[in-house]
Request: fold
Amino acid sequence: MPDDDGAEDAAVSRQPLNPLFHEPARLALLSALAPAEYTDFASLLRITGVSKSALSKHLSALADAGVVEVGKSDTDRRGRRIALTAEGRVAFDSYLDALTAIVQNARG
Reply:
């Protein structure tokens, strides 16, 4: 019989996952942006493996939520420069902490 107290402890310590970040393409996109000051659109296309229109939609959703900033490239007049906002970094770090807690609990 499972330990009811352990299940209760895990449920209490687990933070809800942000559904905006949990979509696989967005997770890949945010993971690419996290260690960088900024990334260009073409690099994100390669990393995520989604179409240009899908990437644009994901970026728009994240920008509307204040998670990313999309600006013009300094070197390519048609290029876009994408970066996490300060709030986006905090929110993504919190998401990763919650995800790590779930994984650690699953591994015992």
